[in-house]
Structures are given as structure tokens and as C-alpha cells.
């Protein structure tokens, strides 16, 4: 059984259908990318997966549980964790306090501390700045905090919404390296990205979303070679 199974999912904002009946799945251990133009419905899809937005139809089964069975405040404890677009860090807290917030529901203090050390190994920049208020960090550093904080939640399925947004190319590369490292540690991931080329290069599979529908899906390698994808999303 897939870790995540989405069937005929529909989402409407008032009279506007943002998601028009999509089907997709993510298997344990997979890294899957969802690409699509602005307004295609990608963020809405992620928000619906974590219960921030209520679907108007269809079903979401995560880890064998149907949507509605886990209260939305409890998704993190069940391992479904999202790093939102714009990072969603606590700007008035320090780097280290932000990381600790990721573990707010855990009591295994020693393990938490060693995982914070592990995040500092992945992101030495954060170690240097552990006492700095997160709101004063650069965009790339804030993205690192957001990803580090998500790691402290011990995710089973990590949803990343546009992690490369607004970052310099060199930082984008670093963020993608980290995404691959997290994947190697066995975390299943759904990545939404404007940077379709990089995202597909690190993924096993991908889906293309257009105007609320999934119009293509398959191995990332095939999408990278597909002429329609190349023209529309890879700038070729
Ligand atoms: P982007 O890449 O620009 O973030 P996206 O694919 O993530 O785009 P969504 O943010 O999911 O797209 O938006 C899908 C559609 O739903 C858009 O037309 C958007 O204007 C609309 N929409 C999103 N949030 C709301 C809301 N809270 N109320 C009304 N309409 C909304």
C-alpha cells in the first residue's frame, strides 16, 4: 500500500474550483515532484493533505488512515509535516529555538539534542548562528531553519513547498543537496517546485499539474525527456 493515496481530490474556494479531481500516490521511500505553472493548484493540494484546507470531494489516505480521521493539529505527530512556501519560521525566536519547536510534541530530550547537532552538521551555517533571531537570517538560511525544524518532527512524509523560491543559485544547489540527503535517510517526500529541472533530477517520479488537473505523471527521467515538459517547464 502507498504511504499516500489521493483519489479524485477536489478543492473549491467559494465558487472557484482550484483542484478538479486529481489522483496520485506516493510510495514509502519515494521522492516525488509536483510541477506546474503559477496558480495550477499545487499549494492548495499540499494544504489539503495536511488538513489546512478542506476538500470538496474525493479522498486522501495517509499511512492507512482516511482524511478526517486524524485531526489537523495532530498531523505532525503522525509524521506528516509541511515546510510551507515562505518558510513559516518563528522570526522572534533564535535558530536553536526554532529547531526545538519542531520537536514540541516529543519528550526524548537526549535524542532531540543529538538531532539538533545533526542538523548543525548538515547546515554548518546554522551552527554558527544558533543564537541569532531567525527573522534576521538570509532567505537561504531561513529555508535551512525551516527544513531543520521539519527534520526535528521526525517526518514520515515531508511536504516541501517551493524550497528554492527566491534563493541564489548556489544556495538552491545546497538546498537540493540537503533534500537528497534527507531522502537517503529514508524520509518520503513530495516536492513542489518551480525549478522543475532540478526537482525532477533528484526525484524518482513526477506529476504535472495544469489548471487544477494532473495532466502527466511518470518516472522523472521520462518527464525530463518529454517534449511538452521541456517546452513548458524546462525553458527549452
Ligand atoms: P503558485 O506556484 O503560484 O504558488 P499553485 O500551483 O501553488 O501556484 P495555488 O496557490 O494552489 O496554486 O492556487 C490555485 C488557485 O486557487 C489559484 O487560482 C488561486 O488564486 C486560488 N486560491 C488559492 N488560495 C485561495 C484562497 N484562499 N481563496 C481563494 N482562492 C484561492
TrEMBL record:
GO terms for biological process: L-amino acid transport. InterPro entries: AAA+_ATPase, ABC_branched_ATPase_LivF/BraG, ABC_transporter-like_ATP-bd, ABC_transporter-like_CS, BCAA_Transport_ATP-bd_LivF, P-loop_NTPase. Pfam families: ABC_tran. The keyword Cell membrane applies. GO terms for molecular function: ATP binding; ATP hydrolysis activity; branched-chain amino acid transmembrane transporter activity. Keywords: Amino-acid transport, ATP-binding, Cell membrane, Membrane, Nucleotide-binding, Transport. Residues 4-236 form the ABC transporter domain. Belongs to the ABC transporter superfamily. PANTHER family: HIGH-AFFINITY BRANCHED-CHAIN AMINO ACID TRANSPORT ATP-BINDING PROTEIN LIVF. This is Amino acid/amide ABC transporter ATP-binding protein 2 (HAAT family). It comes from Aquitalea magnusonii.
Amino acid at each position: 500500500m502507498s504511504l499516500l493515496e489521493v483519489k479524485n481530490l477536489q478543492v473549491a474556494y467559494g465558487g472557484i474550483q482550484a483542484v478538479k479531481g486529481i489522483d496520485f500516490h506516493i510510495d514509502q521511500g519515494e521522492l516525488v515532484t509536483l510541477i506546474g505553472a503559477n496558480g495550477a493548484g499545487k499549494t492548495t493540494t499540499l494544504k489539503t493533505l495536511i488538513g489546512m484546507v478542506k476538500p470538496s470531494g474525493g479522498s486522501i489516505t495517509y499511512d492507512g488512515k482516511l482524511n478526517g480521521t486524524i485531526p489537523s493539529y495532530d498531523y505532525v505527530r503522525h509524521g506528516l509535516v509541511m515546510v510551507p512556501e515562505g518558510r513559516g519560521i518563528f522570526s522572534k525566536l533564535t535558530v536553536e529555538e526554532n529547531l526545538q519547536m519542531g520537536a514540541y510534541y516529543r519528550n526524548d530530550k537526549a535524542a532531540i539534542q543529538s538531532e539538533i547537532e545533526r542538523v548543525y552538521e548538515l547546515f554548518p551555517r546554522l551552527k554558527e548562528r544558533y543564537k541569532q533571531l531567525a527573522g534576521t537570517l538570509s532567505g537561504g538560511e531561513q529555508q535551512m531553519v525551516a527544513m531543520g525544524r521539519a527534520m526535528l518532527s521526525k517526518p514520515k512524509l515531508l511536504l516541501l513547498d517551493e524550497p528554492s523560491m527566491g534563493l541564489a543559485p548556489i544556495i538552491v544547489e545546497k538546498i537540493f543537496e540537503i533534500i537528497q540527503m534527507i531522502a537517503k535517510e529514508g524520509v518520503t517526500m513530495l516536492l513542489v517546485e518551480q525549478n522543475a529541472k532540478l526537482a525532477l533530477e533528484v526525484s524518482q517520479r513526477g506529476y504535472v499539474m495544469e489548471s487544477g488537473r494532473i495532466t502527466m505523471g511518470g518516472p522523472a527521467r521520462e518527464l525530463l525527456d518529454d517534449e511538452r515538459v521541456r517546452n513548458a517547464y524546462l525553458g527549452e
